Amino acid sequence: MTGRNTINPGEPRYSYISRNLPHKFSPDRAVFITYRVKFTLPAIVVTELNQRKTEWYQKLQTIAESEKAEYLRTKDARVFLWFDELISKADGVPKTLQRKDITDIIADSFRHFDGLRYHLLAYCIMPNHVHVLIDPAIHEDGDIYPISHVTYTWKRFTATAINRVLTKSGSFWQQESYDHLIRDADEFDRVLGYLIDNPVKAGLVNDWTEWSGTWVRADLSR
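-> structure tokens emitted (222 positions)
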């Protein structure tokens, strides 16, 4: 996983898939990571997502040439936001991560290598997916610790622990993840705000501080 990811419209489950985009992770630029529980999307979610994508393409045909580059640049982020909104509010999707014992397992996995492989800035554990914001850390070889391995380690540890709690076996997380390199301070503020407000927008709480699955480093908290 070396770049931002998008949602594959050819896959019925709309997996996040990696794209090899020309950016390099660095210790002075935060990374936003999202991954979700493995489950099949309800038909109503697939239909709504397809409809929004169709409307997006229709609008693309009508806008001025001077505006198309920016419109195309933000496509992946738009699709991600639609997807995140729909699975946050849909009926018939897992709510497994809302259990306190499972929330604790995931939160512990984030804290385990904090300060070693990355610097943990914030996270939000939703009922069926998670958002994490980190600063990459410098590894012994002078490079940053691979973001793909960070995510893999979180998933591997938590899948084993959660399956044990649920007395289940097999895949727990969707294999692919979404990661996005934060460009500047303004985008950082927008992404942090998005992470914090996720449970509020999903109608789960009235204020982000009421959601037990959200944590923000003290110097960043509102």
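The longest helix spans residues 147-166.
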